[in-house]
Design goal:
The protein has 159 residues and is mainly α. Among the domains are: 73 residues, 3-Layer(aba) Sandwich (His-Me finger endonuclease fold), CATH 3.40.1800.10; 28 residues. Helix content is 62%, strand content 6%. The protein has a two-stranded antiparallel sheet with strand order 1-2. Helix 1 packs across helix 2. The radius of gyration is 25 Å and the shape is elongated. The termini are far apart.
Amino acid sequence: MADGHRSDCIPCNLAARPARSRADPQRYIAMVKRWQRENPERLTEYRREYRPRPDRKAADGASYLMRKYGITPDLYDEMLEAQDGVCAICRQPRPDERTLHVDHDHATGEIRGLLCFRCNNAIGDFREEYELFLKAADYLDRDDELAAVARERVGALSG
């Protein structure tokens, strides 16, 4: 209000904040950026406090698994062990001890397995449409004149 007072109580205002933020996210992004510009020391202090904690990455990862897929790190580890620590599609080990991605059906939310970055992206690129996978397989297996010319040229370039 113009006099600096609110027309609602703090708990009601805080409860309504997520809906207001969803309705106009750019306004809230601008507010955060303005606060960061106006309070560089407090921002730096916050970042120093938040980032160096050695357990932060594990805690964030555990929170993400539970929030996104409803699984615990222990269940993730069980799935990884059941797959012998490799991607469920290409059977390659995890690169550089990175985690494998949790693959899930976007329509049902059902978890299918753990995939490497490349295989997970391939499924996403094909929009999880089985027919596109079949068309891609047919394309790779085709034996027409154009494919023969392409193979010949690639062979000449690499040979």
